[in-house]
Design brief:
alpha/beta, Helicase, Ruva Protein, domain 3, Rossmann fold, binds adenosine-5'-triphosphate, five-stranded parallel beta sheet
Length: about 475
């Protein structure tokens, strides 16, 4: 362990020559030595200095060492207290130790090496106790911050903690958000959470699914039209841009939008202005944009499905939704949530899953992600009688052949448990630019939190994984304290 330096030691004795020789014995760069010729003088120093260790004689005329240490124990409980005693005073000393007033003692005449070792050990102990307390407080706070539900999301996995933090940070700002991730991972839910947590939440969140609307109708859907703009336009109609004024416009599957319309959207984002189909009038609105795609945006740009300039306009904050199979125990948590929901909806009684059904839910790859899991639980509730959902029901619904692999307990330290790509807040497929660079301190904290979780809060093991010493890890965690 490192040598402790810069510490204050207070020596108390009514005999000046003892104080002098104690001071000489302890003189080093490590300590600042203070001396007091009695209890009252010692208390005065304690009131003005932050003293780490007090070494006091036992028999002093104005105040005994026991009395002084009792006051120090009461007023400065973190100060290490050491008593100097004669060999004949053992009974009084044991009494003081039992009452918790002293950490250790030295017999007179003392041995200088022993004195230094006693003080060094006392200080090391004090440091360890302080570190342990700090660490406990940090872990408590860390667990408090760990959320198993967030807005309409269910799931406490590390991968989702990153998403929750990112949404927390993005929501209050005006910045556009680009959400990526496979189908059914909750991109729309993320858009909804961003809107709900934003100052715009009292206005509309308007969702447009660019894949679901024929391209010839899309412009009118977004910008609205005037009567007679095209055959069938029998009335003036507001588009999403007008409805989302003061709120949020969510463009889902942006990669499916016609390229010519993407150019108009880009102009709309840049200027906040647009024209309804068939109208020459320019209208201005205040809209925040959130977009999503389950394509890789860079590949979509290469395939000329997504305009590069539009992507960079929208990709101010990037959120990458993890596949369900990358979310530790979330599949089971989500399955239980939907089991409750659909039991109630279908008026049936289900209390849970068989052990093997639970294992199956945790092991299955979920290519359709949360949507697939949600649908599976709904059909399981409809098709079976309860009160437990069996593995056979799930296998049947999933068209799976029996395989023992599906029922094996999952290894907690598997790649699924920790995203090994160093994923930290807003680290994603997004092309790096200044806005999605994460401060180094956050990346470091994220890595530490992952390691602690994987190691069940065992700091020594976590330090091993992180390839730092446990004391380095303790120090870093302490720094998180406000
Ligand atoms: N973490 C979650 N907890 C509970 N339900 C979730 C979660 N994530 C998604 N869902 C549910 O899964 C379904 C699919 O979610 P959503 O539509 O947001 O996914 P998506 O990524 O936008 O899908 P797509 O790419 O196909 O549009 C919805 O019913 C949603 O409520």
């Amino acid at each position: 362990m490192d040598k402790i330096t810069g510490l204050n030691i207070l020596l108390v004795d009514d005999e000046p020559h003892i104080l002098r020789s104690l001071s000489r014995a302890l003189r080093s760069d490590q300590y600042h030595i203070h001396t007091a010729e009695g209890g009252p003088a010692a208390l005065e120093i304690l009131a003005n200095e932050s003293i780490d260790v007090v070494v006091t004689d036992k028999n002093m005329p104005e105040m005994t060492g026991n009395e002084l240490l009792a006051i120090i124990a009461e007023q400065y409980p973190d100060t290490i207290r050491i008593m100097l005693t004669a060999f004949t005073e053992q009974a009084a000393l044991i009494d003081a130790i039992n009452q918790g007033k002293v950490w250790g003692y030295m017999q007179k005449p003392w041995d200088n090496d022993n004195l230094r070792i006693t003080i060094e050990q006392a200080l090391q102990t004090k440091m360890l106790i302080a570190e342990r307390n700090m660490l406990r407080a940090s872990l408590k706070r860390y667990k408090r911050e760990h959320r198993s539900q967030f807005q309409r999301f269910i799931g406490g996995s590390l991968a989702m903690q990153v998403v929750y933090k990112c949404i927390d940070k993005a929501a209050p700002s005006r910045a556009n958000v680009f959400i990526t991730g496979p189908s059914g991972t909750g991109k729309e839910l993320a858009a909804e959470a961003i809107h709900n947590l934003s100052p715009r939440h009292n206005n509309e969140l308007v969702c447009i699914n660019c894949a679901a609307i024929p391209s010839e109708l899309m412009e009118s859907e977004i910008f609205g039209h005037i009567k007679g703009a095209f055959s069938g336009a029998t009335n003036n109609r507001d588009g999403a841009a007008t409805l989302a004024d003061g709120g949020t416009l969510f463009l889902d599957e942006i990669g499916e939008m016609d390229m010519a319309l993407q150019a108009k959207i880009l102009r709309f984002i840049q200027t906040g202005t647009f024209q309804r189909v068939g109208s020459g009038k320019v209208e201005k609105v205040d809209v925040r944009f959130v977009c999503a795609t389950n394509r890789n945006p860079l590949e979509a740009i290469e395939q000329q499905l997504l305009r590069e300039d539009l992507f960079y306009r929208l990709n101010v904050i990037a959120i990458d939704m993890p596949a369900l199979s990358d979310r530790d125990e979330d599949p089971l948590q989500i399955a239980l949530f939907y089991l409750n929901k659909f039991s109630e909806m279908e008026n049936k009684l289900f209390v849970g899953f068989s052990k093997r059904a639970e294992q199956l839910i945790l092991n299955y790859a979920w290519p359709g992600n949360v949507r697939q899991l949600e649908n599976l639980i709904h059909s399981a509730v409809v098709m079976s009688d309860g009160p437990m959902v069996s593995e056979e029901t799930l296998m049947q619904q999933l068209h799976l052949k029996p395989s023992e692999e599906l029922f094996k307990p999952k290894d907690k330290s598997s790649a699924n448990a920790i995203p090994t790509n160093g994923a930290a807040p807003s680290m994603s497929t997004a092309t790096p630019d200044a806005s999605n660079i994460v401060p180094l301190s956050e990346v470091e904290r994220f890595a530490i939190e992952q390691a602690l979780l994987v190691c069940d809060d065992n700091v020594v093991k976590a330090a091993g994984l992180l390839e730092v010493s446990p004391s380095t890890l303790y120090r870093k965690i302490q720094k998180w304290e406000p």
